[in-house]
Specification:
Blueprint: H1 9-34, H2 39-62, H3 66-76, H4 85-100, H5 107-118, H6 122-125, E1 126-129, E2 135-136, E3 140-147, E4 152-158, H7 162-183, H8 189-203, H9 206-219, E5 226-227, E6 240-244, H10 252-255, H11 260-280, E7 283-285, E8 293-295, E9 301-303, E10 309-311, H12 316-328, H13 332-342, H14 353-363, H15 365-368, E11 374-375, H16 378-389, H17 395-400, H18 409-425, E12 428-429, H19 431-440, H20 447-460
Parallel strand pairs: 5-9
Antiparallel strand pairs: 1-3, 2-3, 3-4, 4-6, 7-10, 8-9, 11-12
Helix pairs in contact: 1-2, 1-7, 2-3, 2-4, 3-8, 7-8, 11-18, 11-19, 12-13, 13-14, 14-16
């Protein structure tokens, strides 16, 4: 499928402007109709209208590549108030389909960019280069190649003109923010936009991604189940990133068909990697979707794609652990205090601590209340949402008052995606104990956990 994504600032502005105008009119028209409805009918209509608008925004942005696609991806993982779980899951599925079936840019254009980056014809650098990409995403495509030394490599190449498209998207973001603000009144849209601006701008620099990649390789060297492919520094440039090709890896679709014990182990390894990065390295990997890790033949997992990263303030995860601990200890005041300290509750927030606690307890019931080991599934998210909606009363107004601290945006995106990964895998664990290992230093006693602790002790020694 050929790529017909608009690349000019005018074309992208027109597409985003048309999207905002159309969906804004839907929101305004719906509010007029709401005046003739009863309370229950009005609330149901509002939920469905929000879902329809969010779906159109996410899907349209998700088809555009560049920062627009990235904004759609981030928006799809934010828990917008009033969105039914089934609608949320459908939106995420639509976006995943767009991501996995992204239109391909023709090979001749990508080859020309590679030659320009390397300063010589591609055949002078590579002995082989497949013409069909093995992956396509928001910023670039990945090809398989073989160097003249016989090394099989993965070559990630930026789309020609993508930097200009991203710049146009970032300038156009202000057009979109008022609509997002109407859908999620408690969300600091300007802070979210600024965070996204910084992360996507960094993601365009493959030299920076290569540094992140090498940092990960050093941090996880010798690990019992984490594998990071090596970067070929000599061939990597600002717009081309070359790494070791992963051999024999099973994609996520194949892992989902494995026996329970293999799926459980895979899920625990994936959780340990991403939470290990966040709590031990103060680094959040903002794009942990299943296309960025593979199960290797020996049962270990290879991780890659470190473009969307955020360096957290030192000790940030320990501040978040206060909230986790307070929920577990049924300390409503402690939960509210921890959320306020991190910026989730603005100065204008004026709801009872007990209501805040009840929301946090029910959204985290799979860690705090369900009898372990908990085998997650597609129904788990529905069960959680039903329990949260049952709070009733002031709950909906309260969650609209929550804010999203910029430094927490990628952390929450990571968590939401990982929860979805575990549900898709139908994986089981004592999830609360696993979280407590990373946030409260309470070892989770599994064979995988013991292997990781032995590795950590060896590195200290």
């Amino acid at each position: 499928m050929a790529d017909r994504t608009p690349t000019s600032r005018f074309g992208r502005s027109a597409r985003i402007g048309g999207l905002v105008a159309g969906q804004g009119a839907r929101v305004a028209g719906g509010k007029l109709l709401d005046k003739a409805r009863g309370d229950e009918s009005r609330e149901r209509a509002q939920r469905k209208r929000t879902a329809a608008v969010v779906e159109q925004v996410v899907v349209q942005l998700g088809s555009m590549k560049g920062a627009a696609m990235k904004f759609g991806q981030v928006l799809s993982t934010i828990d917008l108030p009033g969105l039914e779980q089934e609608d949320s899951e459908r939106i995420k599925a639509r976006l995943a389909e767009l991501r996995d079936n992204a239109p391909k840019v023709e090979f001749s254009k990508m080859e020309k960019l590679m030659a320009a980056e390397w300063g010589q014809p591609v055949d002078k650098v590579l002995r082989e280069l497949d013409r069909e990409p093995i992956a396509a995403a928001s910023i670039g495509q990945v090809y398989r190649g073989v160097t003249h030394d016989g090394d099989e490599v993965a070559i990630k190449v930026q789309y020609p003109g993508i930097a200009e498209a991203v710049d146009a998207d970032l300038r156009n973001m202000k057009i979109l923010l008022p609509l997002i603000g109407r859908l999620a009144p408690g969300l600091d849209t300007n802070a979210v936009a600024e965070e996204l601006r910084e992360r996507v701008t960094e993601e365009l620099d493959y030299e920076l991604e290569a540094q992140n990649h090498r940092r990960m390789a050093r941090a996880w060297r010798g690990h019992p189940f984490v594998r990071i492919p090596a970067v070929d520094t000599s061939l990597s440039t600002r717009r081309v990133l070359v790494t070791e090709m992963i051999q024999g890896g099973q994609p996520f679709s194949a892992v989902k068909e494995l026996p329970e014990s293999d799926r459980d182990a895979f899920a625990e390894m994936v959780f340990r990697f991403f939470y290990g990065c966040a709590t031990r390295l103060d680094l959040v990997c903002g794009d942990p979707h299943p296309g960025n890790f593979l199960r290797l033949p020996d049962g270990t997992v290879s991780f890659f794609d470190f473009g969307m990263m955020r360096q957290l303030p030192a000790g940030y995860s320990k501040r978040e652990s206060v909230i986790f601990s307070a929920v577990r200890d049924e300390d409503a005041a402690g939960v509210a205090r921890g959320l306020r300290d991190l910026g989730y509750l603005p100065d204008s927030f004026d709801f009872p601590d007990e209501l805040v606690y009840e929301h946090m307890r029910r959204t985290g019931a799979w860690m705090f209340d369900w009898e372990p080991p908990v085998r997650l599934s597609g129904e788990s998210a529905h069960r959680l949402m039903d329990d949260v909606l049952a709070i009733g009363g002031e709950w909906r107004s309260m969650v609209r008052g929550f804010d999203m601290p910029p430094e927490a945006l990628l952390m929450r995106r990571m968590e939401n995606i990982l929860f979805g990964v575990a549900c898709d895998l139908r994986a089981a664990a004592d999830w609360g104990a696993l979280w407590a290992e990373f946030f409260l230093d309470e070892p989770y006693d599994t064979e995988i956990g013991r292997l990781e602790r032995e590795w950590a002790l060896d590195r200290v020694a």
